Amino acid sequence: MNNLSAFNRFTNELKEQDELMPVLFIGHGSPMNGIEDNEFSQRWKAMAKEIPVPKAALVISAHWLSKGTRITAMDFPKTIHDFGGFPQELFDVQYPAPGDVQLARETKSIISSTQVELDHDWGLDHGAWTIIRHMYPEANIPVLQLSIDYTKGPQYHYDLAKEIYSLRKKGVLIIGSGNMVHNLRMVAWDKLNENEYGYDWALQMNEKFKDLIGNGKHDQLINYQSLGREALLSIPTPEHYWPLLYTLSLKGNKDDVSFFNDKAVGGSLTMTSVKFG
What we know:
alpha/beta, globular
């Protein structure tokens, strides 16, 4: 199926279904994961086979911060190479997935807490395409991005996400893409190629995050700054953490919680990811 056929197939088919679509928080790590065949990308591929085929994917990426909330609303979003210093092979990647203007408009309409703008300029940044291209290599699933309003705090993002819960009933795979522990200033660059390496504080916070997520203690996760020194080291800036809050908010009462890619890299990063449902 070509991409235009995929676009035509999925447009106008967003009807409610019996089964809730799972929600994923994915630690995306280095952009190189977008082209490498490693344990993280292999798990993304496997995940796509384990969950129902989505009608569309909506990604909340750490790499699209805006003043106000925006959603991509074009037929074919461009592939954004929002990084530097990597091999040309990574810059050569194009991921030609269709968008879904109708879904963008529907998402805009169901969010009442703020005015969502339809965006025609962004596209798919590396927080989205490096993951999705492994999950759906044929680029036959419409992909949209919802931006993160950098002027707002964690409670705002958690509350906003509740308003898009109904998309789960319509077969939309919602993905938060970031990293729970993400401190680039403290990366042990000489350890990046080791199988697993994490500073004590990073490993401790990773376990704390998993415990709070598994036990549904969302208030503590929203107020992460009160979780001590380890949390402040793990989240020196919040943009990679905010996508987790979106996915936490979308968890249903009957959803199981499971973790995957639960590893630290470079000392101060974790790839730990979560599936709800």
